[in-house]
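Input:
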Amino acid sequence: MTNREIANIFVAVADMLEIQGEIIHRVLSYRRTAETIAEYPREMRALVAEGKLNEIPGVGKVLAEKIQELVDTGRLEFYERLKAEVPEGVVEMLRVNGVGPKKAKMFWETADITTLDSLEAAAKDGKLRDLPGMGVKSEAKILEGIAAYRRRSTDTRTPLGIALPYAETILARLLEIPGALKGTVAGSTRRARPTIGDLDLLVASEDAAPLMEAFIHMPEVARVLGNGESKSSLELANGLQVDLRVLPPARWGTALQYFSGSQAHNIRLRELALKQGLSLNEHAFSRVSDDGEILCATEEEVYATLGLPWIPPELREDWGEVEAAQAGRLPNLITIDDIRSDLHMHTTWSDGKLSIREMAEAARLRGRQFIVITDHSRSAAVANGLSIERLLTQQQEVRAVDAEMRERYGFRVFHGSEIEIKADGTLDYPDDILAQLDFVVASLHVGLRQPREQVTQRALNAISNPHVDLMGHPRGQLIPDREGADLDMEALFAAAAKHDTALEINSNPERLDLEASYARRAVELGVKICIDTDAHSASDMDLLRFGIMTARRGWIEARSVVNTWALDAFLNWVTPRGK
DNA sequence: GCCGTTTTCGGCCCGACTGTTTTCAGTCG
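Output:
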């Protein structure tokens, strides 16, 4: 039973309890814990074994027992009982925009509607409009909601790599409208979650009306979900939901803070505010005593009012950042300017688009000081992997380019390889060949669905090989479609720390692997991190920002990241380990 | 269901928008 499976069950429990009319705080305790568990860096089964479930914030006696039951038996009696009580189709109704727990329950109990199909049929027959609290408009809205739900694929979340550029494009358009003073992308995009539910845009203006007008009339709008004075929501033709909020610049700080979330982080701040006799919302702080307002034009002022230093948005998940801020122990997060090298990239020798020389030049123009060329190894046939003979020939070309770039620019090019960790657990080149390379990245591309023990052992073999410097995209996940391998991450981290093998944060938005919570745990255990682009073209090198954002979400400082090191430090690290 | 330098019981963040409602409940984020 994986963390994500446990989280999914808790979400379903929360949904069913809410439909049953359970008090909302009991429902929310399941929902909050589901969120915590879904991205928890340690596995529940390990915490159960160590008796440490109560270390998870928000988990008390009851939830700990339920997690334990799931880990021990693979099922949860309480969940099975609820499933017998609440029809599956009624729970599914919650996914329809405009249908919440109260309406779902009402459809079920007063009209005996227990499936989405029968809800749709009833709406089409005009049978919903006479139900309590319903009308012609709500009936039509539900039909639209069902249609939109059916259009969406199973997973409605959008990869950050698509969401962010798209949000930036829409925002740039809005900022051209007269009266728009400034704007930003907020929400989970600003926090750099790997996938985004909907886009949140924030614009400062004294006059919201023209912005709202332009926003809801953009050409790509499929449906207007809401359109008020200060807030509008759209569904675009591509299915993406976009929210725009417009506020006056004097309130920018509270608005940006509020709209950036996360919800859990915001709740923490509002609780802190209340302890000081202040109520915090997106408009301002209000003194509870006399309703007097304290406006904040910057986020720094919001946090300062609470006695805190500014907290970078990537940390705002209630993963301990409020406590760290209170203690003056916020990390000094890595920035893109700290990066000096890129240790994982491909050329036309395998499946890349540019030559060694062209990749080197592209990296140099982007401010890198040295790179490693790491084309695919021989068994990666579809990626045109290099035979030993070609690998050694390639080395001559790398040396030639290195000599030239070094002479002209002081830029260095090293020779490496991204070697397959083969399905049988062996590496794709023998040790005496690996020993001739400057740098070795080992990656899992095949056999990702092997049983946990088997795939973990393969990874450990690679990490413990003295010639291997880095494990590339360790889990092999693809966003948003493919779960990573079922690896014992804690064992990987321990081995990586012991053998001084770095683990990668792959910057490609389809990977972002390690993800933030694992990267944070790895560094806690003493593992070095590489943030690489895995570039197959020059433009791929611009994806570095996604890797940096992911590292920042993982609380990572420059000193833990190999690519921030100067050449000497890098060479000192690779040299004594077999090369 | 969780939690406690006020509390082991009684709280638990806050507001925008919509539609159905004659003052507010439901939904959403």
